[in-house]
Description:
CATH architecture: 3-Layer(aba) Sandwich
Strand content: 15-25%
Helix content: 25-40%
Bound molecules: S-adenosylmethionine
CATH class: Alpha Beta
Shape: globular
Number of domains: 1
Number of strands: 7
Structural class: alpha/beta
Amino acid sequence: MTNNWKSIWLKKGQNVLEKDDSLTLRELLKADGFDSVGAGDLTEESWKAFVDFIIQKMEIDSSTQLLEVGCGAGAFLFPIYQKGAKVFGIDYSDTLVNIAKHAMPLGEFKVAEANLIPFDNDQFDVVLSFGVFIYFPTLEYAENVIAEISRVLVKGGKAAILDVNDAKKKQLFFDIRTAEIGEEKYREKYDAYPHMFYEKQWFLDICKKLGLKATIEDQRIENYGNAKFRFNVYIEN
Ligand SMILES: C[S@@+](CC[C@H](N)C(=O)[O-])C[C@H]1O[C@@H](n2cnc3c(N)ncnc32)[C@H](O)[C@@H]1O
């Protein structure tokens, strides 16, 4: 099946840097697509509450070496950066990476594909990836990304692959999304832009194969429409 997502992400946020110097979380969320179909009534407060939950869960502090794979404009990293952490990010969209650089001048951002992370082995204490695995072309690609995440993580490091579509809830995904904009419009808009769905067991099996410990929890962001059919994978190296 054709996967044209990259062309969408390359165009996202094109005018953001022309308009304003000091970027807000709201603008970063919009550039990262959290204003479109599926986001529901997501607020900055509920977003920040979830980021805080991840900060606690992954034990992130100002000494943590932290990477996000598929960081986009940096909506997820921004609240962490604002708390004083040094953040690193990679994304295949140069437009979005430029916004992230602008929003977080002390961060380090590179344009790269998620399956070829341009950092050394054992470099990060924590690796995150929010809302990215759903855009991958194949399961094989996704497996290579997990292997890359494991390679750049220190021994004992933690990773979180967040906001993954649950294969068991695929029908619910379509029911909710087509109800929002109508079936015809939905198909017109998204036929060339398929989302990936994953079995939870697939993640558990791949992590086991790579020698990683994994646990899975359903998504828990308030007012976020996609939460109904998404889950989060927590990994220990
Ligand atoms: C929904 S946005 C999320 C951005 C960011 N993680 C956040 O939560 O704010 C999805 C991001 O994944 C990136 N992406 C998708 N597939 C990718 C791939 N194969 N390699 C690198 N980046 C990818 C897109 O460019 C986009 O920035």
